[in-house]
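All the exercises in this workshop are built on plain-text protein records. Sequence and backbone structure share a record, each on its own labelled line. The structure tokens are whole numbers drawn from a learned vocabulary of backbone shapes. The record below serves as our worked example for the rest of this section.
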Amino acid sequence: MKPYYEESGITIYHGDCRDVLPDVDPVAVSLVLTDPPYGINLATNYGERGRHKNATAKDYAPVAGDDQPFDPAPLLRFGRCVLWGANNYASLLPDSQSWIVWNRLTGESADAELAWSNLGGTARMFTHMWNGYLRDSERGFSVHPTQKPVALMRWVIARATEPGDLVLDPYMGSGPVARACMDLDRRYIGVELVERYCEIAAKRLAQGVLDFGGVG
């Protein structure tokens, strides 16, 4: 498959990750860091439900693939993984003490979000406010219904990899992991089914060191 974007060790593919992953050598990948569909058929009409005061009823399209159960097994063959939303499919993952907790400091939805990891060690927490426009970073920038901060991804990547390592992100979304890898001099392969998000990610990568109006 021809890359949608390729520059300075950052590669993005527009397509289904099931078509890309068989061609990626697990030995070359230092970390899988991704935010897959959780298999919960998430209602993304946040404005209509009053969750986001500044959102309209049709702000976000449904998450691609979220209407079907998610199977994490194809990702586990790559070794070291951090999988967001894994509390929704934890029964399909090995037991682990190494969960990651993102403390969102928000009262409008979940207080925290969880990621399963097999990195070793005990559970770890990253605190970063993400409450509508009340954010510690990227204020006013929200294009994906389950978007997560670049700062969060930088924190994970810095703890789990070294400069030059390859990070694999099969469910790229709007590209926070890609942006974090560029910032930290990691190589990156990302795959995204929705072309609009590929375009947004490419634009984020072109922003130099800017962090979309906030601190990281």
